[in-house]
Write a sequence for this structure.
């Protein structure tokens, strides 16, 4: 589906491992890469409230190497653009290399008929700064295919994060 239907683009049809945190096609899924762009909360805040947070509360950056301070998080973006078919669901897990360094990667499931670049929450759960590397692997996506069509898809629901091109901060429907 990645080769014929552009389910993800760019698509690397093998596992790239030498000298990098691996990315590309795996035995049962795909290891996605982190883009160079990311966002951080501007200044010190006492509360992050999904009901009131605004895009301007975040500051955009672009680096070759990203340092995440202890107890902080960034919002990153996948290098790959996804077009999830109606009978497919993607489940995302952080890379074990980063997990062993105290990095927690969180991405919600890739729903049927969702498309866009993934917004990835990357948190340093440790007590020391941690370095992460854009253009290298950040997470693994496991794709599940159903024999049946879902009752409705993300597109059918008019999903608020559909076709996102940039890192998207939390949104609450009015």
């Amino acid at each position: 589906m990645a080769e014929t239907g552009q389910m993800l683009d760019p698509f690397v049809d093998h596992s790239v491992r030498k000298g990098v945190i691996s990315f590309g096609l795996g035995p049962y899924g795909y290891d996605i890469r982190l883009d160079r762009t990311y966002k951080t909360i501007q200044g010190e805040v006492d509360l992050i409230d999904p009901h009131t947070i605004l895009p301007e509360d975040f500051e955009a950056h672009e680096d070759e190497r990203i340092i995440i301070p202890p107890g902080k998080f960034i919002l990153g973006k996948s290098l790959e653009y996804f077009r999830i078919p109606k009978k497919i669901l993607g489940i995302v897990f952080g890379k074990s290399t980063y997990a062993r360094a105290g990095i927690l990667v969180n991405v919600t499931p890739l729903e049927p008929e969702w498309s866009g670049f993934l917004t990835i929450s990357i948190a340093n759960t440790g007590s020391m700064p941690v370095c992460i590397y854009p253009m290298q692997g950040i997470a693994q996506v496991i794709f599940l295919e159903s024999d049946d069509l879902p009752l409705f898809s993300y597109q059918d629901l008019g999903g608020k994060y559909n076709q996102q091109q940039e890192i998207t901060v939390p949104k609450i429907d009015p």
